Amino acid sequence: xxxxxxxDKFAGTLTAVEAxxxxxxxxxxxxxxxxxxxxxxxxxGPGFVDVLHAALGGRLDVATxxxxxGEPVPATVLRVGDTAYVESxxxxxxxxTGGERAEEASTFGxxxxxxxAIGSGATTVVVGLxxxxxxxxxxxxxxxxxxxxDRPLDAGVAGLAGVxxxxxxxxGASLVLASDVDIPLTGLFGATxxxxxxxxxxxxxxxxxxxxxxxxxAATNRRTSLDKGAGAAGGLGFALLCLGARREPGIxxxxxxxxxxxxxxxxxxxxxxxxxxxxxxxxGKVPYGVAEVAAEALRxxxxxxxxxxxxxxxxxxxxxxxxxxxxxLVGEERAFAxxxxxxxxxxxxxxRTWSRPV
Length: 358
Hints:
39% helix; 5-stranded parallel sheet; globular; 2 domains; 13 strands; Rossmann fold; 6-stranded mixed sheet
C-alpha cells in the first residue's frame, strides 16, 4: 500500500518533519511492506521555511534580527533563484513573547528579514504569516523598511496611539504574503478581537487596542484594512498589502512546492495531522488543505492529532474520513511527555485499521 504522510507541526511539541517521521516509524512497525512518502507541510506559520527548504532546496542565509520585545533573535532567509522566503514567526512568533506584553511587541524584525532578503538580490520576497505574538498592524515591519510617521512605528501597537500620518516606503521588490487567514485588520472579526486573547490581550483591552489600529489604518490606507488577509499575523497582512503585496493561500503555496497533488494521486491513502484538530482547521490550516488535495485525487484522508475536537459530521465536512487523538488513545501525560513516541504508537494503531494489500 502507498501512503502519503503530510502533517503540519504539532505546536509546542513536534515540527512537521518530526511529526512525519514519527508517523512513519509507527506505521512501519505495523505495516513494514507499505511504501511511505513523507511530505511535511506548513501553512505560512512556524516551519514554513524549513518545509520549503526541504522541498525546493536553495540556500539558507542566517540573519540576526530584532525580536518582538527588542531582544536579538536568529532567523533565516531561504533563497531559491530570484525568490526569497521568510517566516514571520521566526522574528515575532508567539513562542518569543510567551503570550505576554502584546501591546509592546513589534514586527520590526520581520521587516529586517524582508530587507535582508531584498539586500541579497531577491526580486520577489514571500513572507509566511502565522503564529505571531504581535498585534501592531505590521507597523514595525514598515518602520524597518523605511516608513516615517508622527508616532513611533516600532514600539508595538501601544506606540500607535494618536498616529495621524504615515509615509510608506517603496519596498524595492515584489512581495507575496502567504496566509490563509482572511480576516480584516479591525472590527468584530478583526485581528485584535479574533487573535488578541491568545497573545495575552485581556478582554478589557480589546476595544482600546482595536481603536489604535483603526487610527493607524486611517493614517495609512483604511480601504486596505478591510481586505481579506489584512488581519493576518496581528495585522502584518495589512502592512504587506499596503506595500502592494499579492496574497496567496499559504497551504496552497506549500502544496504546490512539494507537488502534493501529484504525490496524492500516486498514493492509496493520505495521512495528515496537527496539534489540535477542530473546526477552525477549515480556516486554511494544513489538515483541511491536505484533505482537499486528497479529495481532488479521489483518495481517502485520515488525520492524527494531539486532540480531536470535532464530531464525525464536522470531521467529514472537513474532508477527513477518520481522526485519531493522541490524548484519547495514549493519555494526556504521555502525549506531552513523549510526543514522538506517542504519535508513533497511534500511527501503528491507525495502520492496523487502514493498511490493506494493494
